[in-house]
Write a structure and sequence with these properties.
The complex is a heterodimer. In chain A, about 5% of the residues lie in helices and about 45% in strands. Chain A has 1 helix and 14 strands; from the N terminus they run H-E-E-E-E-E-E-E-E-E-E-E-E-E-E. Chain B has 1 helix and 13 strands. Classes of the chains: A mainly beta, B mainly beta.
Chain lengths: ~170, ~170
Amino acid sequence: MTFPAGAKIRADEINEAFGLLAMAVNDTAVTNSTTAVSAAGLVLPLEADTQYVLDGYIAYSAGAAGDMQIRLHEPIGGWAGHWNFFGLQPGAINSVGELNAVTIGGFGSLLLLAGSDAFGGTLAARLLGFVATDENAGNLTVQFAQGASSGTPTVIRAGSWIRARKAS
Amino acid sequence: MGLEIVAGEQASASGLRDRLGVLAVLQADITVSDTSEFSDCPGLALQLDAYARYLVEGHIAYTTLSDPGIQFCFSAPVDATGHSSFFPLRQGSTFGVGPLEAFRQVVFSDAFPQGAGGQATYLLGAAPQGSIKTYRAGGVLQLRFAQITPSPAGTRIRAGSWLAATKVKEYPIT
């Protein structure tokens, strides 16, 4: 977005330029389930026919048995893009292990990240990505589930955030 | 320490542009093969002002076989100083999983690249971050990449990869 010198700038242009930001104000938990649900508050309403760059921070906790599956979800299926949560590969011990650098193309597949029973399963992942919407506007949503059904909850924590900055 | 739009003063267009920073998104895949010579990744270039400091961030989505792998670096305006890391999967990793490479390069040059692992099946990601300070010459911060060992198998940076630079604070020139 450019701001021509001397031109008046509308509030909506400034808001648009600084992008969209969503932060979870409550925890969302999944227990005994591998069915993906939306993380409360981690939703960005995107415009049609627009490119956005994405980043974010996901604070989560999960047991070593359940781990966490996570994805970005779009409503209809026509958006293009890719994303990565740069988290730990399952099998990590005491929150230390291998980086999962797999980038997911599109918005359907779930990415499996580690859980850990140590220190209450306190972990974090970092979102980076890109989305090009089609003629349909809609909500880009963080969804997650357990990797394997477990009685130890997998929780996306309040304070997690995602951001979309308009690139076109 | 970000640039501020001062309360009570009229915001200028240049002030808003500085506050927002610059952003580049790659619009089409770029492929290299049979070479370990670095080349620009056109489209992933950021125009920087003279005498300015920026934080740099981005997301590089790429595909490459484990051999030849991929290596990244930046070229920068003359006399610019700074440092960066691509936080990639360590060179030689397979299946998109492996140790994190957190080495930080302190020179923007082909001679100081950072290698990354590849895998036949998966799209992979690297997460460049860093900072740069420019002097008398503004110019372009340019992503460059190459295969680690020359191979006919293409090494590709994918459309949708992006770089951003946010101006932090201009500093007094002495």
